[in-house]
UniProtKB/TrEMBL annotation:
One of its GO terms (molecular function) is DNA-binding transcription factor activity. Residues 1-70 form the HTH iclR-type domain. It comes from Nonomuraea cypriaca. PANTHER family: HELIX-TURN-HELIX TRANSCRIPTIONAL REGULATOR, ICLR FAMILY (PTHR30136), HTH-TYPE TRANSCRIPTIONAL REPRESSOR ALLR (PTHR30136:SF24). This is IclR family transcriptional regulator. The keyword Oxidoreductase does not apply. Signal peptide: none annotated. Coiled coil: none annotated. Keywords: DNA-binding, Transcription, Transcription regulation. One of its GO terms (biological process) is negative regulation of DNA-templated transcription. Residues 64-236 form the IclR-ED domain. It comes from the Bacteria.
Amino acid sequence: MRNVINALRVLEEVAIRQPAGVGELARGLGLPKSTVQRSLRTLYEAGWIRPAGGGLTRWQVTGKARQVGRRAEFGLRDAAMPVMEDLRQRTGETIHLMVPEGDAVVLIERLETDKPLRIVLPLGIRLPLHASANGKAVLAHLSRPVAELPAYTETTITDPDALRAELAAVHVRGYADNRGEWRSDIAAVAAAVLGPDGPVASLSVSTPASRMPDDRRVEYGKLVTLAARALSESLG
């Protein structure tokens, strides 16, 4: 069982760091190089990873790993759509479904507002964990720190202590918010969709900044928290 767990941990770390070498993976996981090397060989023989650039020193995930991930996303989308539609009906705003991937969250589904003034984000876009509502909702349930906190706007949180305080507040109220921290014209509230081992996704209500005053932010925050909880329960 320990060998299986180590192999899965190595696969996850390769996906985050790819292309990644043995030493880098061992340091990141806190495992001996010999253990990481055995796991890499097992994953390679099973078709989950392949050498990057033709050598056997750095590794990346294969299409097999991506196919499994896409099938999981489809299942998540199917479960999320009715919850997202109900949230859109209640708010009249754009609803986003994002999944954590490394040091970002990735947009995998959206339901748009019918209001003429809207902000459309393309599917597949990556948003930083520390500077987006979806990212902070996920980050609040992760134990690992963010290595870098670059500024995107004047309101981006770049101080580690301030970010820790913000994430503690997310835990208390149940949702994260974004006050123009990634783009100054966007406001959002988001809540994490939780599985047995932590966050698997996040749901958000996203609006132009002018349409989210503080009272509406609280209202939408409560709604998105209930929606994320319902999706978590439907996923088991």
